Protein: Cardiolipin synthetase
Organism: Photobacterium aphoticum
Amino acid sequence: MEQFYQVLTWVGVFLYWLMIAAVTMRVVFKRRVVGVSLAWLMIIYIIPIGGVFAYLLFGELNLGKKRAERAKDMFQPYEDWFQRLTDCPGHQPHLMTEHARPINDLCENRLGIPALSGNTLSLQDSPQTILRSLIDDIHDAQHAIQMEFYIWHPGGLADEVATALIMAAKRGVNVRILLDAAGSMRFFRSHWPKLMRHAGIQIVEAWR
């Protein structure tokens, strides 16, 4: 009987190290960042059995791949639109100056978006100038406003932006805002989301 338990023990040890070796190979061939791979290997070897289960539960989550696939699906309508831009009246590459042509080439090569005529650009070098210009554009909007921010902290000119958006929504403008949940945490804890949604503004809280 004692010999049976001894054999069972050796079989258990063999299966354990076989499992460790298999998971180790899995970690190595995943080709993650070196620091991440080393951290998982330390957990697997230092914490018996528990480290393996922890990796199987959390280490195999491939959110990056899922996000890439989702972004690819979302980009398809825009890609079709970009391809049609070359046929619109605003696409007049023969009228570009020698300074504008390299910028157009850069945009087309990197983004696939050609430069279009009929636009004006202004350099804004301070937050106050940027927000004041943004508020003016909101007041001038007639049909739709779509905005995206990583960080929105309530207070100062940001409150004036929120007020301008509420006024725009009340006069019939379709207002939609996308905010990062972590970067705009203080905003979501303030009274502004409730006021803005009550005015008809669609606010989406994006999670990572």
